[in-house]
């Protein structure tokens, strides 16, 4: 609502009021915060926090039977049982113990538990833990092979599964990039892979290989627009094509706000914001969100060329 109020003020030529409203919002590391910063041509504000390892507290946690059981079950690949043990182990922990437990899980590559554990308040600033560069070699290789921006591929995985390699949706979409079996089979055929059933979708590297190929097809279908391709990945290309036919002349931010499916509307804003954060994690500076929302973004899923935007944390030392 605050972004749209600023947008309305700008439309009414109340420039000073609009800049003030944009300025308040531009300090936030989210979709509308990044758009507000673009309106002001200002740096993006991302203020990360770290969890300092506490060896004493960590050792005490590992001595707890429930914690040790959860980590051991995960280490041997019994993820369902590990998740249950994790939930039980967290009951009654204080905030500091909970953060140290998240750090232990991250060190073991158990990224989805970390994402869910650090999901509110100031914990949202633990960007290195909440936005892991997991399967980095595979993601970057397959993204580049399909002419996709790696930050976008990372963002979509994070939005789809929160890095749960074995997650299955109610619609029977599986794995990191939440592929339906039929889609997985089709992509495997295109890539010359021998389809061996849905178990292939639970292998992270195979899932990423098939998922990035499907994402590239959506990008090609929608002239390289990452946000339209993300919408198609979530809702299917047919509804997106219909929405474009009905109101494709709207500015991208207005179009996204009026997507009829709430899930898709929120999904697109989440993926676009996550793309900025992953771009920052990978490159230090970022492509402006406004350039990512161009209807035509050039070659496949890479944003149109634009000056990269600086990322700052006001008041941070160094």
Please provide a written account of the structure.
With 318 residues, the chain is mainly alpha-helical. Helix 2 crosses helix 3, helix 12 packs across helix 13 and helix 14 crosses helix 15. The longest helix has 22 residues. The protein has a two-stranded parallel sheet with strand order 1-2. The two termini are 34 Å apart. The chain has 18 helices and two strands. It is 60% helix and 1% strand. About 3% of the residues have low confidence.
Q: What structural category characterises the helix and strand content?
A: mainly alpha
Uncertain residue segments: 296-303
Mean pLDDT: 94
The DSSP helix count reads 18
Strands ordered across the widest β-sheet: 1-2
Instruction: Tell me how many strands there are.
Output: 2
* Helical coverage, percent range: 55-70%
Outline the fold blueprint:
Layout: H1 2-11, H2 15-25, H3 31-40, E1 44-45, H4 55-62, H5 65-75, H6 79-90, H7 95-107, H8 111-117, H9 127-130, H10 136-145, H11 150-161, H12 181-191, H13 204-221, H14 226-235, H15 237-247, H16 252-257, H17 262-283, H18 289-292, E2 311-312
Parallel strand pairs: 1-2
Put the structure in a nutshell.
The chain has 318 residues and is mainly α.
């Amino acid at each position: 609502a605050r972004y749209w109020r600023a947008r309305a003020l700008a439309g009414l030529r109340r420039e000073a009021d609009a800049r003030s409203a944009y300025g308040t919002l531009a300090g936030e590391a989210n979709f509308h915060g990044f758009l507000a910063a673009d309106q002001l041509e200002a740096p993006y504000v991302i203020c990360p926090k770290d969890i300092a390892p506490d060896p004493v507290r960590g050792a005490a946690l590992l001595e707890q039977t429930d914690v040790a059981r959860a980590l051991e079950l995960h280490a041997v690949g019994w993820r369902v049982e590990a998740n249950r043990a994790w939930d039980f182990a967290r009951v009654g922990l204080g905030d500091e113990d909970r953060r140290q437990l998240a750090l232990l899980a991250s060190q073991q590559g158990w990224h989805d538990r970390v994402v869910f554990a650090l999901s509110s308040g100031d914990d949202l600033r633990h960007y290195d833990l909440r936005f892991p560069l997991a399967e980095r070699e595979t993601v970057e290789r397959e993204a580049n092979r399909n002419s996709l921006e790696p930050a976008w591929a990372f963002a979509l995985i994070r939005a789809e599964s929160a890095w749960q390699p074995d997650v299955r949706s109610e619609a029977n979409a599986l794995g990191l990039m939440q592929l339906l079996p039929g889609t997985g089979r089709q992509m495997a055929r295109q890539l010359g892979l021998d389809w061996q059933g849905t178990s292939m979708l639970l292998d992270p590297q195979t899932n990423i290989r098939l998922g990035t190929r499907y994402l590239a097809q959506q990008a090609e279908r929608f002239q390289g627009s990452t946000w339209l391709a993300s919408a198609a990945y979530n809702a299917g290309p047919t509804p997106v094509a219909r929405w474009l036919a009905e109101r494709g002349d709207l500015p991208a931010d207005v179009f996204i706000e009026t997507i009829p499916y709430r899930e898709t509307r929120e999904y697109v804003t989440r993926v676009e914001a996550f793309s900025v954060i992953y771009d920052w994690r990978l490159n230090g500076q970022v492509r402006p969100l406004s350039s990512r929302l161009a209807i035509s973004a050039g070659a496949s899923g890479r944003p149109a060329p634009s000056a990269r935007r600086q990322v700052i944390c006001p008041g941070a030392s160094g």
